[in-house]
Amino acid sequence: MDGAAIYSLFIINKSGGLIFYKDYGSTGRMDTNDSLRLASLWHSMHAISQQLSPTVGCSGVELLQADTFDLHCFQSLTGTKFFVVCEPGTQRMEALLKFIYELFADYVLKNPFYEMEMPIRCELFDLNLLQAVQKDRVASLSR
After folding, report:
1. What is the C-alpha to C-alpha distance for residues 23 and 84, in angstroms, rounded to an integer?
2. Residue 86: beta bridge partners?
3. Is residue 88 part of a domain?
4. Using one digit for the tens of pLDDT, what is the confidence trace for 85-120?
């Protein structure tokens, strides 16, 4: 897997639709239908957890830890959710997700050709996202 800590990135609109998916792992690639199902499942789980939480003002699941992966989630104020699937115990994912949100705001939302809530097709976003993930990989390898 060439030392990659990040397996995949999903961006889900406020309605629960998958608007961006990127696979960074070399094993277990998902087809389009699988990625759509997983995004829908995560959106539903996130929404249900907000309603069932005993904590007042809960914003939903932020971290799901499993034996073989961790799933980190960041929800923007507009309801767009960013979640990354990574190796167990990977650090600094919250900061990376917030940085990805900044890239989303800078390169997608400010793009005059982007239609809100639609799939993201923006070359500058893709390039800057790849650089951010590669920097994060290098930082995790150097520790």
Report:
1. 10
2. 6, 70
3. yes
4. 999 988 889 999 999 999 999 999 999 999 998 999
Do the domain assignments include residue 1? Answer: no
d(C-alpha 33, C-alpha 92), whole Å: 30
Extract the tokens encoding 45: 């789980």
DSSP string, 74-95: EE-TTS-EEEEEE-TT---HHH
Query: Tokens at residue 97, please?
Result: 């997700």
User: Six-digit token pair at 136?
Assistant: 């994060």
What range defines the domain where residue 23 resides?
Answer: 6-141
Q: To the nearest 5 percent, what fractions of the chain are helix, strand and coil?
A: 40, 20, 40
Residues in the chain: 143
Q: What pTM does this model have?
A: 0.86
Report strand pairing: 81-86 vs 6-12.
antiparallel
